[in-house]
Design a protein that fits this description.
Blueprint lengths: L1 H26 L4 H8 L7 H11 L5 H13 L14 H36 L4 H15 L2 H16 L14 H35 L2 H8 L4 H12 L1 H25 L5 H11 L2 H29 L6
Helix pairs in contact: 1-13, 2-3, 5-6, 5-8, 5-11, 6-8, 7-8, 7-11, 8-11, 9-10, 11-12, 11-13, 12-13
Amino acid sequence: MTRYIVRRLIAVPFMLLGISFVLFMLLYIRPGSAAFAAIGSVGDADPRAFEKFEERFGLNRPWWEQYGDWLWGALQGDLGERLTPPHDDVMGDIIEVLPNTLEIGLLTIFISAVIGISVGVLSAVRRNSILDYAFRGITIMGISIPNFWFAILVIYLPALWWGWTPARQWVVFTDDPIYNLSLAVWPAVTLALASAAGMARFVRTSMLEVLFSDYVRTARAKGLRDRSVIWGHVFRNSLIPVITLVGLQLGAVLGGVVIAEQLFTVPGLGRLSLEGVTDQDYPVVLGTIMVFSFVFVLVTLLVDILYTVIDPRIRY
């Protein structure tokens, strides 16, 4: 297991290197547009201003020199300077908003896991019952509803019916934990809807496969109570594919957090990335996506390690 973890850790920098190269080529294929977005239209700005802008940020140099400088700076914790005023440090902006995104992401995973696992277990235990059919219908609806549409309903319908809408002024957790959680729960619930629905169906299928295995019938024949059989044998042995799904759903959460943070005005990494795309601020976009990629790769590694915690029989 130790050798496996070491091999995975060695592979992480090469994976991030490949991601950064592809992103850099996609973003910097038209470097002149960054100057256009930062300075203004050609009719409103002196052409010499574009030349000075590109010279200051090195956009007039060959792409390999630009990528080499960015890569060397990234290895030292410097992701460059924002192209748009006030030209803040990209790493500083990311560090400032990253805790908000992590909070929403962890809260989303927690809500989706609690709801998805509970509904999936009940649906499997009460298979082919009215409760099972109801849960299956609800999960199909949850998978089918887009996150952004559900977020709009959460904002619009309470305001239409009761004259109430979620608060929009973000407060960090350290300043007021209770108020902060009351703000973070709405984007988290929005993102957790589809994740919980997909997890519930996955848990149900996985548990039904284990529920009719020989060792479960043997455990019941020995006189064990249903609760012990369900939670001690069936549920634990069906967790491995569920944990895999949780790790994969993180990618969906990281993608959906961009829309959720924008709709609920959360100053997070997703909103910062969207601002970078809108302003064609390439260092911001590249830096935020690389942070997303690093988090996803790290969680994937942790999921693989958790396999051996759940099932000691697994050896890599």
